[in-house]
Amino acid sequence: MFLLLRPRHAKDYEYANFNLPELVDFDLDSIRARGKLVVLTENSASTYYLYKGTPKGFDYEVVRAFAKSIHVKLEIRVIENLDSMFAMLYRGEGDLIASNLTITPTREQFLKFTPALYESEQVLVQRIDTSNKNLVDGIVVHDTLELGRLPIHVHRYTAFYNRLVDLNKRNDLNMQIIEASGKVGTDELLQEVATGAVPATVTDKSLAFLYFDDYPELDMSVPIGPKQGIGWAVRPNASKLSLALETFINSSSGKRFVQRTYGRYFGRQEAKWSGGLHSVFTLPILTGKQISPYDSLYKVHSKIIGWDWRLLAALSFVESGFHPDAESWAGARGLMQLMPATMEKYGCDTLCLPDDNIRAGAKYIHNLDRFWLQYVKNPNERVKFILASYNVGPGHIMDAMCIARQLGKSDTLWENNVAEAVMLKTQRQYYAMPCVKHGYLNGAGPINFVNKILSVFHHYQAHIK
Fold first, then answer.
1. Label partner for 407 (CA 20 to 30 A): which of 135, 339, 390, 398?
2. pLDDT tens for residues 41-52?
3. What DSSP element (H or E) covers 121?
4. Would you state the pLDDT for residue 122?
5. Distance from C-alpha of 164 to C-alpha of 173, rounded to nearest angstrom
6. Which residues have a Cβ under 8 Å from the Cβ of 458 and sit 6 or more positions away?
7. Per-residue pLDDT for 322 more than 50?
8. 322: left (phi over 0), alpha (psi -120 to 50) or beta
């Protein structure tokens, strides 16, 4: 049962500025009695999304561990409108917000924050235009004093908006700060800058890490503020829940778990970022008549699928670079970068030899081929659906087929049809369609994956008989 409370000093919680309703009284005891923790978050690459049918995201994994520590189930409630997240928390529609929130003095007046999970600085995101010879490094803005040169789209209730307003006042920059709709997600804003739909936005550097490779046309090198803590927020009267969260995050095991999870999601990309340059995909160098030390295995196991062995080798190169001990951030392993459950299903454990790993990968691809045969009859087109499914799971690609149909496009052709719909899965208006079952997707990932493999395959075809 929810009890409605009014803060003793309503203005301290800035009701007028954030349109906050009355505050419910629902703390840790009530959460335990109910048996579940309801978490408010957004669909994004850093918070929560489905990867090959499995929930992923930094915030999701850490909050799942917390829910387990207090012996309750976890329920994720996706925020449909980011402008309403604080009101949803106050009304009791969720118990905490775990959605990449910057801890600020303004927010601390009406929210109770956990200790910072990590720190991140805000960066300007703008499109690189190397064709314009009048631009130094292909960008319009090089430091904060030049922020007035581009309209910047941000959400009204974000720390980004407040930072821009503060910079504008202090430096008299005559900035154009455009309020983005709360129905447009953070990741969607980045995609809109990448496509040129909007000139610029602001995001946390940690989130920018995740897009460093997928959007090479974006520049994220201009910081607009110092590092700030990123944490979760609960209602100001949820003191017991707040204490439990603080205890979990500050415990030695909690700190290790947060650091390890941060490293898996952000660490490798952060290392690339520190180099200052986007990763540029290059075709493999071929010497002699051999592609890799495993050519004989690709030749044998490609027969399971009926593929040209060079295509199987191309997939393996893009996945692992032919490193048999490779392990991804998500736990995929080996030459074929198979998830543990997939390896087990096809007779390969985490210590299996390259022969077994390639065989398991080929069996998995064979099953994907059988699945897609019922929808895509053309074998040349079907290969693209298979490769995309190998990357993110068939569910997301089925969603994209549905979106393509809704837009009057073909659901059996890849380029300019289903591939275009895959890209749209970053946008809430599309991933919230009734026929879409797997939610948000960073569509640039599988698109780039398919393109890279086919480029490598054609390269192998041209040089290796």
1. 390
2. 998 888 999 888
3. none
4. 93
5. 10
6. none
7. yes
8. left
Which amino acid is residue 263, in one-letter code?
A: G
Higher pLDDT, 316 or 264: 316
Given a contact cutoff of 8 angstroms between Cβ atoms, the answer to whether 333 and 349 are in contact is no
Token pair of 299 as six digits: 């030749």
What is the spatial distance between Cα 299 and Cα 297, in angstroms, rounded to a whole number? 5
Residue 49 parent element (H or E)? strand 49-51
Measured in degrees and rounded to the nearest 5, phi and psi for residue 129 equal -125, 90
Count CA atoms closer than 13 A to 36's CA, side-chain side.
10
- Match 């009284």 to its residue by tokens: 25
> Are the C-beta atoms of residues 461 and 310 closer than 8 Å to each other?
yes
pTM: 0.80
Are 310 and 457 contacting, i.e. CB atoms less than 8 angstroms apart? yes
The answer to whether domain 3-115+229-270 and domain 295-463 are alike in fold is no
Q: Which of 368, 344, 301, 318 is nearest to 352 (CA)?
A: 344
**CATH for the stretch 295-463:** 1.10.530.10
Task: Say how far apart CA 47 and CA 110 lie, in whole Å.
Answer: 23
Contact status, residue 443 vs residue 418, Cβ threshold 8 Å:
no
Scanning 211-335, the segments in alpha helix (DSSP H) are 239-250, 252-262, 268-274, 295-301, 309-320
Which secondary structure element, helix H or strand E, spans residue 59, and what is its range? Answer: helix 58-69
Give me the residue spans of the domains in the chain.
3-115+229-270, 122-225, 295-463
The string of pLDDT tens digits covering residues 186-230 is 888 998 998 899 999 999 988 887 887 788 889 998 999 889 999
10 Å CB burial of residue 8 (0-12, 13-18, 19+) is exposed
- The residues that bridge with 43 in the sheet, in sequence order, are 48
- H or E element in which residue 203 lies: strand 200-204
- State the angle between helix axes of 58-69 and 239-250 in degrees (0 to 180), rounded to the nearest 10: 110
Rounded CA gap, 444 and 45, in Å?
A: 12
CB atoms within 10 A of CB 288: 7
For 323, phi then psi, to 5°, come to -100, 110
Question: Where would I find the H helices in 126-251?
Answer: 159-171, 186-195, 205-210, 239-250
Q: Single out the residue of 253, 387, 258, 265 nearest to residue 331, CA to CA.
A: 265
Q: What is the pLDDT of residues 124-166, one digit of tens each?
A: 999 998 888 889 989 999 999 999 999 999 988 888 999 999 9
Which phi and psi angles does 61 have, rounded to 5°? -65, -40
Does CATH place domain 3-115+229-270 in 3.40.190.10? yes
Q: The CATH number of 122-225 is which of 3.40.190.10, 3.100.10.20, 3.20.20.450, 3.90.330.10?
A: 3.40.190.10
